[in-house]
Specification:
- The chain is built from 30 helices and 16 strands.
- The strands form 5 sheets. Strands 1, 6, 7, 10 and 11 form a 5-stranded antiparallel beta sheet that branches. Strands 12, 13, 14, 15 and 16 form a 5-stranded antiparallel beta sheet that branches. Strands 2-3 form a two-stranded antiparallel ribbon.
- β14 and β15 form a beta hairpin.
- The longest helix is centred in the middle third of the chain and has 37 residues.
- It is elongated.
- 47% of the residues are buried.
- The N terminus and C terminus are likely disordered.
């Protein structure tokens, strides 16, 4: 298969690139083997220097900073909200469930739970005891005497009321009470009343009450009941009752930096309230003394982040055990079963080099202010998979040296081994790097950050495996050749000879004598092609059924109290969908009232909105009752608007809307901003959620307000992500595939081989995405990240085979036989080692690790199939011609090295001149 003088440009590039890389790695290997300690120390110093950047490390947990584009409508509205209506409320929710919650015994238990919550005491930074009364969200008590003595009606003017309300601090003040939506507010807050209740009293009072006995606000108490049954329009039975307790965030403390961690939350929280919420959780988890038949579910504002974080942290233990299994596996595969040729120290140091690469990645990224996200916890596992793969390739190269090469000095043997291995790990590392560099161009901050961490880690890993690991391999091989103990290097075994069993390589024997032999039989080739085609067709059908959906509840284990609470809420309150707010800026309100009216009419006509709670509707009713004028859909003059607004806000019906307005400082009733709430129906699919969000945006944008106007809901952050995640996934995968093809084309210098590698990667992706469908996964932010990782891993399996095939001379079947025999073991070992490190996560309750396991299981199965089964068959049928390795350029390079510290590299007339 010699080449003529009219070789095409690609073949010339093949010679130049292949021979150039081999020459570089040969010299580099010789240098490392001569000065191993210098290279080890340099690696350690570089790692330590990079780790200094960890002083700037910070973890980002806010969803709006992780999962949605920073130029999105949601982020813009959130920024406006923070400036105009900073969130100072934290909701604690309790759901009581029984066959009939409207029994006196259960009502009394609910009251006892309320008292237990009121008895919670935390200490602030000044050493003061703080209770719910001190920390709750307080509102004026309307139309009745407050516990402190002064009622709203006692003020002489509206401006006096406003001045008093604006001056209220976080502590209990006359005329205010803790805001709750609670079935208990049917009755006065008096223990004697609750003790005297009968079952008939409960039914009668719940149907008759329409105003909070504690605050004077109108409340639809039947709306707090779930699965209610009615007779003649009266509720007679209900399965559940929902309680909402609002707590107030101390913004002054938060602005000074005294705040809780708030993992997974979009709002900040001061330390006192954060501690109080922990005690609230402890109280609600104490089920002692509860009557039989009553079950209590609850949710604190800190619950989600705490449980989701603990779930991931809990699974890190299993990840650590997986790493221990990986260490044992690497030790078994790198060494042999005798006291000298075993390599436990080398195995451990190989894993240490992976840890050093992770340290460099974290240190450099932290130094440049790149945040650490919740999905980054899988990064060490990814680095292990790639690093162990490189270790196996390097060691396999050592064992693949022929008899002539094994007679050379140690320095030159290391150079020859790295000469072969360097090309392989360069190709795989560069393709991985480019795939993640492409992923870093995404608009999703979490994915962008993760890809940057990965790209830097891969570069560091490549450098350390080719340097730090090779240096220690040199020292370990020196130890071995002096017959020193594999674990205790200072002990020398005298008159040592290896036992016969330890010299057998069963894995390579299987690939060489069994697997390669049967794989190349014609019936087997036909079967492989048929199976591959059948898999492709089936998996294409599976991919068409892959859903795009993300639900934060998936991050919660089903055994957690929060998951159970959310499940019960969705069951008993099916119309209680996501609540949103419409924010309005400094409008000319008196003139733009018709625009607000038209907006609400559009919202009421929407199939996605179940209810609207707007100050505008109350204002219209108040104007009609007090002035006799119907202002529905009408503009009014400014003075009239101010008069009716003042009267409305300090009436018993309108007082609860006072918090929905922001007035100009020092100028009472000059409006700068307002808001009103709405609630979506429960939306079950991603397409429904996106349509509902987009429709709401269209309603507000089409209203034509003169100043800022936008809708927002907490879940819009996830819906914004759902809207673009599929597009981002397709974009990232397509760009990564193109980049992989270009990089393999440049480094393999073979159009056909690069195309075959691309086919294997594409087939693996299709199969893995189909597996996602059948295994209950969806397209979300976690799976998007994992699919980018999929390209980085599965390309390694195919590239090693394609490269080695190009470096072997002979017929196609002969080349495949040698390739599979020599590259099968390291490829399989590298793939299996990655799988082994996370196999214990199969039963994880964390959505992150569960998705990681399922997708990487697919990568292992389908990647190995296409790399070790389909690709060899394809190459045996239509594989390209081999490289022209004995080139003048290589001969010239070897002559130039005659004066180097290593012996001159000789080009022998071997049939198989290069081994990976």
């Amino acid at each position: 298969m010699g080449k003529s003088n009219d070789e095409n440009c690609l073949k010339k590039a093949s010679n130049a690139i292949s021979n150039g890389l081999q020459r570089i790695f040969y010299r580099y290997g010789c240098s490392i083997a001569k000065h191993p300690w210098i290279y080890i120390m340099v690696c350690v110093v570089v790692t330590a220097a990079c780790c200094v950047g960890l002083m700037n490390f910070y973890s980002e947990t806010r969803s709006e900073k992780l999962w949605i584009p920073q130029d999105s409508d949601y982020v813009k509205t959130l920024n406006w909200q923070a400036e105009n209506f900073p969130n100072d409320q934290r909701a604690q929710l309790i759901l009581y469930e029984a066959d009939n919650i409207l029994l006196a015994d259960y009502i009394r238990e609910m009251y006892r739970e309320r008292l237990k919550i009121r008895d919670i005491v935390v200490t602030d930074k000044y050493g003061r005891n703080r209770t719910q009364e001190d920390l709750c969200y307080r509102v004026p008590v309307l139309g009745r005497q407050a516990a402190g003595g002064v009622a709203i009606a006692d003020y002489e003017s509206d401006s006096e009321v406003l001045d008093s309300f604006s001056a209220m601090e976080e502590y209990a003040l006359p005329g205010t009470g803790c805001y709750e939506l609670n079935l208990l507010d049917v009755w006065k807050d008096d223990g004697a009343i609750f003790e005297a209740l009968t079952d008939d009293d409960v039914i009668r009072d719940v149907n008759a009450a329409n105003t909070s006995a504690s605050l004077g606000f109108p409340i639809d108490f039947t709306g707090l009941l779930g699965a209610a049954e009615y007779t003649d329009g009266r509720v007679v039975k209900a399965r559940s009752a929902l309680t909402t307790v609002l707590m107030k965030v101390n913004r002054t403390e938060v602005d000074q930096g005294d705040m809780g961690t708030g993992e997974g939350l979009t709002e900040d929280v001061d330390l006192e309230l954060y501690d109080w919420e922990l005690e609230f959780i402890n109280v609600m988890q104490d089920a002692s003394g509860r009557p039989e038949g009553l079950t209590v579910y609850f949710q604190s504002a800190r619950s989600y982040g705490e449980i989701a974080g603990d779930t991931i942290v809990g699974d890190v233990f299993y990840l650590a055990v997986g790493m221990l299994l990986l260490f044992v596996f690497v030790q078994v595969m790198l060494g042999k079963f005798n006291m000298v040729e075993t390599r436990p120290v080398l195995s451990l140091l190989g894993l240490v080099s992976v840890g050093m690469a992770v340290g460099v990645s974290f240190g450099l990224c932290s130094a440049f202010g790149i945040p650490y996200g919740p999905v980054h916890s899988v990064l060490p596992l990814l680095m292990l998979g790639l690093g162990v793969d490189d270790m196996f390739v390097i060691v396999q190269c050592w064992y693949n040296l022929d008899k002539t090469e094994r007679r050379q000095e140690l320095q030159e043997r290391v150079g020859l081994a790295l000469r072969h291995a360097g090309v392989a790990i360069t190709i795989t590392s560069l393709t991985d790097f480019v795939a993640f560099a492409i992923g870093a161009s995404t608009v999703l901050p979490a994915l962008q950050s993760f890809c940057i961490y990965c790209a830097i880690g891969i570069v560091a890993l490549y450098a350390f495996q080719a340097t730090f690991f090779v240096a220690w391999f040199t020292l370990d091989q020196t130890r071995l050749e002096k017959h020193r103990n594999g674990l205790f290097w200072c002990y020398t075994h005298k008159n040592w000879t290896p036992n016969a069993c330890s010299q057998r390589d069963f894995c390579q024997t299987f690939f060489t004598r069994v697997y390669a032999k049967y794989l190349l039989m014609k019936p087997v080739k036909v079967l492989v092609l048929a199976v591959t085609a059948a898999m492709l067709g089936t998996c294409i059908w599976g991919v068409t059924n892959l859903r795009q959906e993300f639900n934060p509840v998936w991050f919660l284990p089903e055994s957690s109290y929060l998951y159970q609470f959310i499940s019960r809420v969705q069951y008993y309150y099916p119309q209680s969908g996501e609540q949103g707010l419409v924010y309005l800026g400094a409008l000319n309100y008196s003139a733009e009232l018709p625009k607000i009216y038209n907006l609400e009419e559009q919202m009421r006509g929407s199939e996605y909105i179940s209810s609207i709670d707007s100050w505008y509707d109350g204002l219209v009713t108040h104007a009609l009752e007090t002035t006799g004028e119907d202002i529905t859909g009408k503009a009014v003059n400014e003075s009239y608007f101010e008069d009716i607004l003042q009267g409305f806000l300090f009436s018993s019906e309108g007082g609860r809307y006072l918090q929905n307005f922001r007035f100009l400082d020092g100028e009472p009733f000059i409006l700068e901003a307002s808001k009103f709430s709405y609630r979506h129906i429960i939306l079950n699919t991603s397409s429904q959620r996106i349509s509902a969000m987009d429709e709401m945006k269209d309603f507000v944008n089409s209203a034509g307000f003169s100043d800022f106007a936008a809708p927002i809901a907490a879940e819009y952050s996830n819906w914004e992500t759902d809207k673009i995640i599929a597009e981002e996934l397709i974009r990232n995968l397509a760009l990564a595939m193109v980049a992989v093809f270009i990089m393999t084309l440049v480094l393999l210098a073979s159009l056909i081989s690069s195309f075959y590698v691309l086919i294997c990667v594409a087939l693996t992706l299709v199969d893995v995405m189909a597996l996602m469908t059948w295994w209950g996964l969806t397209i979300d932010t976690v799976s998007c990240i994992n699919l980018v990782l999929c390209i980085g891993l599965c390309v390694d399996y195919s590239v090693h085979i394609a490269l080695h095939f190009m470096q072997i001379k002979g017929s196609r079947d002969e080349r495949v036989r040698v390739t599979v025999g020599e590259m099968g073991p390291p490829v399989l070992n590298g793939a299996f080692s990655t799988f082994l490190s996370f196999i214990l996560l199969a039963g994880s309750e964390s959505h992150v690790f569960e998705s990681f396991f399922k997708i990487f299981f697919g990568v292992f199965v389908f990647g190995v199939f296409h790399g070790l089964v389909f690709l060899p068959v394809l190459l045996s049928l239509v594989g390209p011609a081999p490289y022209n390795t004995v080139s003048p350029a290589l001969l010239e390079s070897t002559e130039d090295t005659s004066s180097s510290s290593c012996k001159q590299l000789e080009i022998n007339g071997h049939t198989f001149t290069q081994h990976i």
